[in-house]
Design brief:
The protein is an alpha/beta fold and about 575 residues long. The strands form six sheets. Strands 1, 2, 3, 4, 5, 6, 13, 14, 15, 16, 17 and 18 form a twelve-stranded mixed β-sheet that branches. It has a four-stranded mixed β-sheet with strand order 19-21-22-20. A two-stranded parallel ribbon has the order 7-10. The radius of gyration is 23 Å and the shape is globular. The mean pLDDT is about 95. Bound molecules: adenosine-5'-diphosphate, formyl phosphate and magnesium ion. Formyl phosphate binds next to helix 4.
Length: about 575
């Protein structure tokens, strides 16, 4: 089979203006950026939000291997299948981060004959939104460090010299890292403001670090804001430091929120692209689901739901990750949850969850995972059953999509389909990768049947519970564990955030996606584990409290054989090798 990029580059794409017209977007609501992508205007958001709303399908998955089990392929494939059976459908997905594109996973535009195209534009700069998040984030970093520097050097004269209020910002109180859209472990912990002895011309020396842009609070704000005004308000609420009285210092207080919003103005508009079969696809925001909340934007959903009868979107990693955060964080920001869930399962993914294979993070998957192994499949099935039950916990109908890989055996797929049916869940084989929409028509029919069932969407916890109670609910109910273990820092963070009035925020768990638990070595359906919480971070602008579990990193590193090794460009400027 041809590679993803060759399929994408040989596709006969429609001009984006035709895709927009077919989706009911008027010419004045579109800002084309070349032939195949366009920004959507803020006026369209208003019109679409007031229109009758379609149904929202949220695609999730079993506990994945590091390669991913096909949620994006299934999201695009299902939307093509829905189009093929006559539905008015749109897809909403995140913009890929260059971290994974050049790192382990590669691109995130789907794959095979279920992709967003042009995939190389989708997987690289697109319309610059992630670059804008990076710039706005780092402007705030430069601003807070400069404020500490000038307040320290002028002391009591600061106000008379600058006309600005002295806020008591010190280098020790700054909690804002810098970001870059790349996997770069060397930037995780750094010292900044290095000076010759006795001098401070380079600023105030302190320890800091870089996170990947997908983990920036501003990325979460872009994904959770309801409109431009809400984005601006949230940016002002971002806490950059704590003053010498341990009170939060916000971006608004140091006067940088407006400039951040100016940088993000265009990024606040979703980008319209198309699938290989012409499904209008909105690409907007790119938070990962392990170190952030992992869902595309509320703004994109609001536009798509006002234009289409069915909107298909995706939560990152397994249902313990992006799906949980869609239901407990995004749904609250959007004022609505999903109307149905699709749980993607693969033979390789279930075998990886059998516990029968030695899967070391960063190491290639064993070939045996891609061959017949009925014992591993039987053992791994428990993980799929857990994710079906987990999705049902939120009150929505569930359809299982068996994402067929080329070497999958008919016998194992048939066995799995039968077991899912026995468990009472709806199930459909998806051949969207190899056949596009034609290979996802039965999945589309199953999803339409699920959407005709009543949905009684509910959150997992109430916001007015104390932070520790919400952490316990996530550990014990969302993950099936036996409680939490709070570090001394985490206990102090809970106390401080509660006293400051942030105890009513939802929680965003930063956790490994390779296990339902915090420990990537615990496959299948772990039990008897306790989730170690090493600290909490306030994301006041995004509107959640971030809990760091286990050894999760907010700046990934490059593997020994990174994906960039296969990427190049020919003399005509054609990019090759992005997978
Ligand atoms: N059915 C399939 N056959 C072959 N490759 C697939 C299939 N489904 C997904 N892939 C590939 O697996 C990788 C992960 O797919 P993706 O849809 O991005 O997963 P997720 O969104 O769950 O991380 C991509 O390289 C994709 O092209
Ligand atoms: O945040 C992770 O998203 P995928 O599972 O789609 O890679
Ligand atoms: Mg994906």
């Amino acid at each position: 089979m041809k590679s993803d990029i060759v399929i994408s580059q040989s596709a006969d794409l429609a001009p984006i203006t035709d895709i927009a017209a077919a989706a009911g977007i008027q010419p004045h609501e579109l800002v084309p950026q070349g032939q195949y992508k366009a920004k959507l205007s803020h006026q369209l958001l208003k019109r679409a939000s007031d229109a009758p709303q379609g149904k929202l399908v949220l695609v999730t998955a079993i506990t994945p291997t590091p390669l991913g089990e096909g949620k994006t392929v299934t999201t695009i494939g299902l939307s093509q299948g829905l189009k093929a059976i006559g539905q008015k459908v749109m897809a909403c997905i995140r913009q890929p981060s260059m971290g994974p594109v050049f790192g382990v996973k590669g691109g995130a535009a789907g794959g095979g004959y279920s992709q967003v195209a042009p995939m190389e534009e989708m997987n690289l700069h697109l319309t610059g939104d992630i670059h804008a998040v990076t710039a706005a984030h780092n402007l705030a970093a430069a601003a807070i460090d400069a404020r500490a520097y000038h307040e320290q050097r002028h002391g009591d004269q600061f106000e008379s010299r600058t006309g600005l209020p002295r806020l008591g910002v010190t280098a020790e109180g700054i909690v804002w890292n810098r970001v870059v859209d790349m996997n770069d472990r060397a930037l995780r912990r750094i010292r900044i403001g290095l000076n010759e002895p006795g001098r401070t011309v380079n600023g105030l020396e302190r320890e800091s670090g870089f996170d990947i842009s997908a983990a920036s609070e501003l990325m979460a704000i872009l994904a959770l804001a309801k409109d431009l005004g809400d984005l601006r308000k949230r940016l002002g609420q971002v806490v950059l430091a704590y003053d010498d009285q341990d009170q939060p210092v916000t971006a608004e207080q140091i006067g940088v929120a407006g400039a951040m919003a100016a940088i993000l103005r265009d990024a606040a508009q979703p980008t319209l692209m198309q699938s290989l079969e012409g499904v209008p696809t909105l690409v907007h925001a790119g938070p990962f689901a392990n170190i952030a909340h992992g869902n595309s934007s509320v703004i994109a959903d609001r536009i798509a739901l006002g234009l289409a009868d069915v909107v298909v979107t995706e939560g990152g990693f397994g249902s313990d990750m992006g799906f949980e955060k869609a239901c407990n964080i995004k749904a609250r920001a959007a004022g609505r949850g999903p109307d149905a869930a699709v749980v993607v399962a693969t033979l390789r993914g279930l075998k990886a969850n059998s516990g029968r294979y030695d899967l070391r993070p960063g190491q290639p998957l064993p070939d045996a995972l891609f061959q017949e192994d009925s014992e591993a499949l039987v053992d791994g099935f428990a993980n799929l059953k857990w994710h079906i039950d987990n999705a049902r916990r939120y009150g929505v109908p569930v359809v299982v999509a068996l994402n067929r890989f080329p070497d999958d055996s008919d016998a194992e797929l048939a066995w799995l389909e039968e077991r899912v049916r026995e468990s009472g869940a709806s199930v459909a084989l998806s051949e969207a990768f190899a056949k596009g929409g034609e290979g996802a028509k039965s999945l589309a029919e199953a999803v339409m049947a699920a959407l005709s069932e009543p949905a009684d969407f509910r959150h997992l916890y109430e916001l007015d519970q104390p932070l520790e109670a919400k952490l316990l609910t996530l550990a014990e109910v969302a993950y099936g564990g036996d409680g939490i273990e709070l570090s001394e820092l985490a206990k102090a963070d809970i106390e401080r955030l509660t006293v400051l009035g942030y105890g009513n925020l939802p929680l965003c768990m930063a956790k490994t996606p390779l296990s339902i638990s915090h420990d990537p070595a615990l496959k299948g359906v772990p039990s008897g584990f306790t989730i170690p919480i090493r600290g909490l971070r306030l994301c006041a602008g995004a509107g959640f409290v971030y809990a760091l579990t286990g050894n999760v990193m907010t700046m990934p590193g490059l593997p020994e054989r990174p994906a960039y090794l296969s990427i190049d460009i020919d003399e005509d400027g054609n990019i090759t090798g992005i997978d």
